[in-house]
Amino acid sequence: MEKIQKRPQSVRSLTWKKRWYRFSRNYMSVIGLVIVALVVIMAIFAKWITPYPEHAGAFTDFANANTAPSAAHIFGTDNSGRDIFTRVVFAFRNALKMAVIVLTISVPVGSVLGIIAGIRQGTWIDTVIMRFTDIFLSVPSMILALAIASILKPNMTNAMLAITVSWWPWYCRLTYSTARSISRENYVRYAELTGGSFAHIIFKEILPNCVSPILTKMTLDVGWVIMTGASLSYVGLGEQAPIPALGNMISSGIKYLPDQWWNTIFPALGIIVIILGFNLLGDGVSDLLAVEEE
Amino acid sequence: MEKHVENQDQDIVLDIKNLKKYFYMPKGVVVHAVEGVNLQLKRGETLGLVGESGSGKSTIAYDVIGMYKPTSGEIIFNGEPLHPDIHKRPLKQKGDMQIVFQDPGSSMNPRATIETNLAFPIKRHGGLKDRQAIHERALELLRFVGLPEEYAQKYPRSIGGGERQLACIARALASNPKLIILDEPTSALDVSIQAKVIRQLIDLQKELNLSYLFITHDLSLMRNLATKVAILYLGRLCEIAETAEFYSTPMHPYTQMLLSSIPVVTEEEENLRPVKLESRGEIPNPANMPTGCGFHTRCSRCMEICKTQHPQMKEVSPGHFVCCHAIEGKPVDTEAAVL
Amino acid sequence: MEKNGSFEIKDLKISYKVFNGELQVVDGMNLRLNSGERMGLVGEAGCGKTTTLKSVLGILPSNAVISSGEVLFNGEDVLKFDNKKMQEFRKKNCAMIFQDPSSALNPIFKVKDLMMNGMRNSLAKSKDWKKVAYEKAVSSLRDVMLPDPERIMENYPFQLSGGMRQRVCIAMAIATDRHLLLADEPTTSLDVTIQEQILKLIYKLSIEKKLSVILVTHSMGVIREMTDRVSVMYAGTVMEVGDTKDVLESPQHPYTKALIACIPKLTGSGVAEGIPGRVPDYLNPPKGCRYVDRCPYATAICREEKPKLTDCGKNHQIACHNCGR
């Protein structure tokens, strides 16, 4: 054909700049991004940024037990004399670790099952997968976790197992509806008509176009997985003492309310900050990924 | 004699025999989308399927390509019968027949570059595994349709609608097809871009001896593109003839109504139009078809027999067939005839 | 306001804010519409015709910026209307019909609710405004040739066909006496035979109700059937304007000529090559005439200076430096 106007930058970097522009117009998402970035950095570099890394574990110093927040211990100390700030940071680390592992397993499994059910809509495959999903969705995650914990030992691994098992159905539902509508698009029909294999259609045609809702939900879910994990450890089903977890720190600190409030309040604030950050970020993630007409 | 018949058979790329497609909806409602259609397409030619909504033109195309399973009837492609179920068709058949859709926006995977979109049929039907070879072939296809080589790295969303359609045509050519089904490929495009795309299609047809099944509602376009034109109304063929004959002597009342309704741009064209038949009435719902001839509710020449009995296909002149009670002609056995 | 509904757009410039600049879509648009006249606004996708219409009714998206120009209705600049005046303008003077009647009608309301809601505020707040509104609605439906209007009033939009829905939209537009009707591709999504009926209807109504109509379309054929005058738009400016017969039979502007040549004709004259080049980049539009990269007659001055609309025949103007080539 004819000359086209050449753009100075490459196509890729222009697209990302545009996406950042859209994303940054929403202040709340940017705040979310900042909070998440801080939390993640704190979690990764926990050993180096905390003043008393050895307090994250079995450590006792009863002389300093239950001291109020001060210059030496900005969040105060707990009943065993351990620095709460350090423990909260390590608890962040454990919480994020749990969220990453849970989502890494449940998201791909749930998504692929949902896509398979979506493109084979109306057939027995659809019915089997979705009814199976419905069974899991009808049991509240706490009850499921309690059931699993009562069979197995209560520890972090089993808590993660319990949460994973109760989390994948949501992704199945999500991709089911997305895959149903995408499978009617012309390019998917074309792939079927030209002899595309089942695997090709799932992984090359449909999955890349489901990425946006999946990633949005994943981002929002980090906060909720952590919340569920904290609830489990609060009732004693997750990490056991002395491993620092947001839930068990709150539960062990309850009996010291209201005088030694710092035992409970700071871990609780920690949960709030994490969930807030991921929620705000999650709202804007779709802006970062959306495919838009140029 | 036998050899002659053989040649004639080979000449017919697509032979649709008594195709019927019904959609069974809930509450016992049956939509008769296609009701006994017979068509032939010869190699290297363009057959225009024209109709408004509910005519069944797209349904016929989707039956041929395998998106829908025909309720009954036979489709012979390149001498071989087409299995109604797309999954049971051999790969070669799928490659020999390609489709270009109407909407350029959703025809290509938006998350893949044009080259990736082209690579899929290249790999599937060309047997090429080497990345470099696939890349070369993709560039070759883009050159075929007149798109610059840089487009291979672009995403579909960053090029215009007409260029996207050209890329879809390039994709259709990847498997060296014998037949391309074009479902209103330019209806969503501007006139100047439509001209480019149609020009390209015409050039490609000459170069590669392609056969086109072209579905549209644009009669002016068909005048300049099709070898034969077939008009459909509510799932049945009304009239079919070679292009020149069709436009000079349209016989079916619906054809005349259509030709009278299309907006034209010049005085010349205005004078070419048949007797101005006022368009009246609405297109009936295919789920609730009128008895007898589907067009009788709007037809100015409606007789008593039209309300109860469906008309038979008649030959009014060689190659010109009309399905109407009010027209005189020699009745034909549609299954045996070459339409 | 008096029945003299004179309408004029003067040098309108609209741009859209995007992340890397501004898309200067409408670039000095001029239009004059006499009372009772049917004016066609024809152009290809992206040339700014819908943007222009939307600016008249004040329904542009939030990232649109009207940098200059006036839209004068009866001498008043519509662009400077505040909310209250704009509401009045929409109720009393100007109505719009859109391309897709299915999305223009709220599917959860019956036709009678849709029509009466639109009239609620414009009728006097009398006790029996419902009865008056109902009568008016039925009579509008009759005006648009819908059979059995009382039954249609009780229907939901999904129970009607595309053509009938568009008729309902037109009925809503003419229910109260208005002077100006803006039609944005009203028949593009309809079948050809129905399209003809709707266009004839709009024509008939515009004469009966003394409406001025601006019909936006990309089809020259529709222009020929429906309008008295036509403005041909390209990339945000009017390139040619004149009586429809004149413009179609002897187009003067290179773009109009090329456009008409591209239209497939019933005479079987073949398919044109199309127009070389692409629509200019609205982010960095050319300084001079926007058609310069695609025009076979372009000269040096075309690159430097934007041509203004100048006379080149009776009631016929073009924006071209090489007028009459």
From TrEMBL, chain A:
Residues 92-282 form the ABC transmembrane type-1 domain. The keyword Membrane applies. The chain crosses the membrane at residues 27-49, 98-119, 131-152, 261-281. The keyword Nuclease does not apply. It is a multi-pass membrane protein. Keywords: Membrane, Transmembrane, Transmembrane helix, Transport. It holds the Pfam family BPD_transp_1. It is found in: Cell membrane. InterPro entries: BP-dependent_transpt_permease, MetI-like, OppC_N. Belongs to the binding-protein-dependent transport system permease family. PANTHER family: D,D-DIPEPTIDE TRANSPORT SYSTEM PERMEASE PROTEIN DDPC-RELATED, OLIGOPEPTIDE TRANSPORT SYSTEM PERMEASE PROTEIN APPC. This is ABC transporter permease. It comes from Dysosmobacter acutus.
TrEMBL record, chain B:
SMART domains: AAA (SM00382). CDD domains: ABC_NikE_OppD_transporters (cd03257). One of its GO terms (molecular function) is ATP binding. Keywords: ATP-binding, Nucleotide-binding, Transport. It holds the Pfam family oligo_HPY. It comes from Dysosmobacter acutus. InterPro entries: AAA+_ATPase (IPR003593), ABC_transp_ATP-bind (IPR050319), ABC_transporter-like_ATP-bd (IPR003439), Oligopep_ABC_C (IPR013563). Residues 14-259 form the ABC transporter domain. This is ABC transporter ATP-binding protein.
Automatic annotation (TrEMBL), chain C:
GO terms for molecular function: ATP binding. It is a peripheral membrane protein. Keywords: ATP-binding, Cell inner membrane, Cell membrane, Membrane, Nucleotide-binding, Translocase, Transport. InterPro entries: AAA+_ATPase (IPR003593), ABC_Ni/Peptide_Import (IPR050388), ABC_transporter-like_ATP-bd (IPR003439), ABC_transporter-like_CS (IPR017871), Oligopep_ABC_C (IPR013563). Its main location: membrane. It is found in: Cell membrane. Residues 9-260 form the ABC transporter domain. Pfam families: ABC_tran, oligo_HPY. Belongs to the ABC transporter superfamily. This is ABC transporter ATP-binding protein.
